[in-house]
């Protein structure tokens, strides 16, 4: 296996030898039932299997905002984030850069099928989970409620993670919850399988979000086939896999190679991973690509 890896990934054998301490790669993900965690767990398994002296592990986090903070603090090496939580201007020498744009997160507004909540503005006066503190969901939802002029007095906001949001909706403790994730979100699928469910369309708020904040927001469909519910169109924004800028170029090149060349294996862990491609992966504004990732994409070009 080692010989095969060194043949496929030239240059790695010169980075370290077997007497060196393992290279620790900590991957900041999100909820254990959401896409980041499934994606990250599969990626960690691939890195451990195919890169000599790499020891990858997955961290459960509140997701995007926490992940970026952990990367900036040097407490993890890789992390997933939504594009809209990043600063519009990261400066000339950011400590965190990108490996790839991986897929789009779609904002889910989930309620029970018999709920009076049929539009975003129907949340007025109701108790709603806006996502865990430190999550990308929280950032997107606060912006959405701002452009819809639903202030904190109008919507009774609580901050639960995905699993707690699902449990609270089941018990009737909240009227709805938001979650931003790649399709399908397992916890939403399980809730919809066991409970009559409605996902509320948010298409009309894409343009106001783009005007008020940044042009990362786009409309995307949640097809009927995903949750066996009516098709709705919602707000989406890109997801990136980020890396500390100080990681060695060759190591990041090899990780990028595996990210792209093992897409079918990653897609088996979660279908969202199968939507990656080298063509779309290089689109990571406002962050630059790590030089190692750039080297892979440059070599990949026909």
Can you describe this structure?
The chain is of the alpha/beta class and 302 residues long. The chain folds into two domains: 2-6 and 22-102 and 239-300, Periplasmic binding protein-like II (D-Maltodextrin-Binding Protein, domain 2, 3-Layer(aba) Sandwich); 105-238, 3-Layer(aba) Sandwich (D-Maltodextrin-Binding Protein, domain 2). Helices cover 36% and strands 22% of the residues. Strands 1, 2, 3, 4, 5, 6, 7, 8, 9 and 10 form a ten-stranded mixed beta sheet that branches. Helix 2 (35-50) packs across helix 10 (263-269) and helix 9 (249-261) packs across helix 12. The longest helix has 16 residues, at 35-50. The two termini are 29 Å apart. The relative contact order is 0.18.
Blueprint (SSEs and pairs):
Blueprint: H1 2-8, E1 23-28, H2 35-50, E2 54-59, H3 64-72, E3 78-82, E4 96-112, E5 127-129, H4 136-147, E6 156-158, H5 162-171, E7 176-181, H6 186-194, E8 197-199, H7 206-212, E9 218-222, H8 224-227, E10 232-244, H9 249-261, H10 263-269, H11 278-281, H12 291-300
Parallel strand pairs: 1-2, 1-3, 5-6, 5-7
Antiparallel strand pairs: 3-10, 4-7, 4-8, 4-10, 9-10
């Amino acid at each position: 296996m080692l010989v095969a890896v060194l043949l496929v990934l030239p240059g790695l054998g010169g980075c370290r030898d077997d007497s060196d301490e393992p290279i620790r790669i900590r991957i900041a993900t999100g909820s254990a039932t959401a896409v980041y965690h499934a994606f990250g767990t599969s990626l960690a398994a691939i890195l451990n299997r195919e890169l000599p002296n790499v020891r990858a592990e997955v961290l459960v986090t509140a997701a995007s905002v926490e992940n970026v903070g952990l990367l900036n603090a040097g407490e993890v090496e890789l992390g997933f984030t939504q594009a809209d939580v990043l600063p519009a201007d990261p400066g000339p020498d950011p400590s965190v850069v990108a490996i790839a744009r991986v897929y789009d997160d779609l904002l889910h507004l989930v309620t029970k099928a018999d709920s009076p909540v049929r539009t975003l503005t129907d949340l007025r006066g109701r108790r709603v989970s806006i996502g865990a503190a430190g999550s990308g969901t929280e950032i997107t939802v606060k912006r959405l409620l701002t452009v819809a002029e639903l202030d904190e007095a109008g919507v009774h906001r609580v901050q639960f993670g995905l699993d707690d949001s699902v449990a609270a909706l089941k018990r009737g403790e909240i009227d709805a919850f938001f979650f931003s994730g790649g399709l399908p979100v397992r916890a939403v699928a399980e809730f919809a399988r066991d409970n009559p469910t409605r996902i509320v369309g948010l298409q009309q708020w894409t343009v106001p979000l783009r005007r008020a904040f940044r042009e990362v927001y786009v409309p995307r469909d949640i097809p009927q086939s995903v949750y066996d519910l009516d098709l709705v169109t919602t707000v989406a924004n890109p997801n990136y896999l980020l890396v500390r800028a100080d990681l060695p170029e060759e190591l990041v090149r090899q990780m990028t190679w595996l990210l792209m060349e093992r897409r079918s294996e990653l897609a088996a862990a979660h279908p969202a991973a199968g939507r990656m491609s080298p063509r779309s992966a290089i689109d990571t504004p406002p962050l630059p690509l790590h030089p190692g990732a750039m080297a892979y994409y440059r070599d990949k070009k026909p």
